[in-house]
Every structure is written in structure tokens, then in C-alpha cells.
Specification:
It is a single chain. The protein has about 160 residues and is of the alpha+beta class. It has helices at about 20-30, 85-95, 105-115, 120-130, 140-155, and strands at about 1-5, 10-15, 50, 55, 70. A hairpin with a 2-residue loop joins strand 3 and strand 4. Helix 2 (about 85-95) packs antiparallel against helix 5 (about 140-155) and helix 3 packs across helix 5. It is globular and about 45 Å long. About 40% of the residues are buried.
């Protein structure tokens, strides 16, 4: 099946079997490996991307259902000159990562949260990130990073 979509602002397509997951298409066919596969059960959030304006776990979305969609991955967050997105910069500044495996999904979920709720409280941030698991940190620096990123995004 030919799946055509816009990824990080660029039209892309891949011929994939009908049962291909969006995360597989992104990684294997489009070579965008920043979207990670963690659990294959949509529990960990490492595969989170923004599709048509909403954070989705790409391991639970068939590529076929993304046909015609606009998808943003972690690779599309930084500016063309390499300047990090404010949320990416905040994760770096606040030490909101250790091994980094969960970080792309965390950043994508955090950006989605701030886009929808620019005044998100600490409790709302923690609730929003419940679908993203980190096995390295105690989440405190992740929450701090989201708050710092939120403030930078909102201005």
C-alpha cells in the first residue's frame, strides 16, 4: 500500500504492507529513527509523534490510517540551522534526561501539552506525562524541563 503523508513539513511516501505501524514506517522506510520503539504496546510513550495536531503513540497507529496526515517527529522540532526547539533546549538545560531513550516521546508529549494548555500547572504536566515512562530519572527534572520549556514557548 502506498502511504503518502507530510512529515516535518515535507511530503513523503512509502510502499508498505497494510499491517505496517506508523512507527515502523517512520523508522524503517523514512529513516527517521528519533522516534523510538520501547514496548510495542503503547504503554511507554517512546514512540510519541504529533499527528494532525495531536500527540499519538505511533506504535498503535497503522501507517495506512496516517495516509494524508501531517506528522511531526523529533527530527522536525529543531530549526533548520540546528537551533533546538525551546522544549528540547529545556530538557538539555534542566537535565531532564539520562539515557535519552524516552526523551523524544517526552518532548513531543510536552510540546503537545503546551500547545493545548500554555498555562499547564505542575499537576497537569505530571498527569499529561503519565503515558510516557522513564526508567532512569525520578521525573522531577523532566517536570522542571517541561515547565521551563513551557515558559520559553509561551514567552
Amino acid at each position: 500500500m502506498l502511504v503518502q503523508l507530510t512529515v516535518n513539513g515535507k511530503p513523503m511516501q512509502a510502499d508498505v504492507p497494510q499491517n505496517t505501524l506508523l512507527v515502523q514506517m517512520l523508522r524503517d522506510n523514512l529513516h527517521l529513527t528519533g522516534t523510538h520503539v520501547g514496548c510495542d504496546t503503547s504503554q511507554c510513550g517512546a514512540c510519541t509523534v504529533i499527528m494532525n495536531g495531536d500527540a499519538v503513540k505511533s506504535c498503535s497507529v497503522l501507517a495506512a490510517s496516517a495516509n494524508g496526515a501531517e506528522v511531526k517527529t523529533i527530527e522536525g522540532m529543531a530549526q533548520a540551522d540546528g537551533t533546538l526547539h525551546p522544549m528540547q533546549a529545556a530538557f538539555k538545560e534542566c537535565h531532564g534526561l539520562q539515557c535519552g531513550y524516552c526523551t523524544p516521546g517526552m518532548v513531543m508529549s510536552a510540546v503537545d501539552l503546551v500547545n493545548k494548555n500554555p498555562k499547564a500547572s505542575e499537576a497537569e504536566i505530571r498527569e499529561s506525562l503519565e503515558g510516557n515512562l522513564c526508567r532512569c530519572t525520578g521525573y522531577q527534572n523532566i517536570v522542571k524541563a517541561v515547565q521551563t520549556g513551557r515558559d520559553a514557548m509561551v514567552g
